[in-house]
Write a structure and sequence with these properties.
21% strand, alpha/beta, single chain, 8 helices, 31% helix
Length: 229
Amino acid sequence: MAKLGKRMREALEKVEALKEYELMEAVTLARETARAKFDESVDVAVRLGVDSRKADQNIRGSVLLPRGTGKKFRILVFAKGEKEAEAREAGAEFVGGEDLMKKIQGGWLEFDRVVATPDMMGVVGRLGKVLGPRGMMPNPKTGTVTFGVKEAIEEIQAGKVDFRVDKAGTVHVPVGKASFSVEDLAENFNALMGEVIRLKPSSSKGKYVRAVFLSSTMGAGIRVAFVSS
């Protein structure tokens, strides 16, 4: 344990707290400071100049990361009839309706993403207090409320990630694994930032992107030099 602690300290000492790093250097550092025995996630935190209490500034969206996420998701689908069969054929781990709703109300949460057809939202709506805080509530804006069940499942497994600004005005998004190449992580980072910029609300005043940080699951936050309007 002491040896691991020393290695971790040595890795973290490479990061200068107040320095802004160019993207490729920041990604390299994020990979180097990932010293856990598992393949750590590489995450981006974007601090925005928005007031999330205002409906038009409550940034929410999704982006298909071109290099994927490095993770296979356990997808739950609320659907019935032909769409239920479609979901199963597309590889959804769990498919159903009120049975799944009641199971989740009972505390079961062994899934990563949720998709629902529009006609099932009356059932799904009862899970708002459970799924909402976990960022798993289906939403038309992220393409998870749709009759295109097969496409939604395929996009999630291909690397589609959803994001939403928190109360502090920050968006947190995983952009891959520490085992990814520097180039692949940078490509995913740029795809994410392009979508965040696209969603800039017209009512946002002053600097929109205030700070951007990269970090591995167990690593230090690395500030990325990022210029935007």
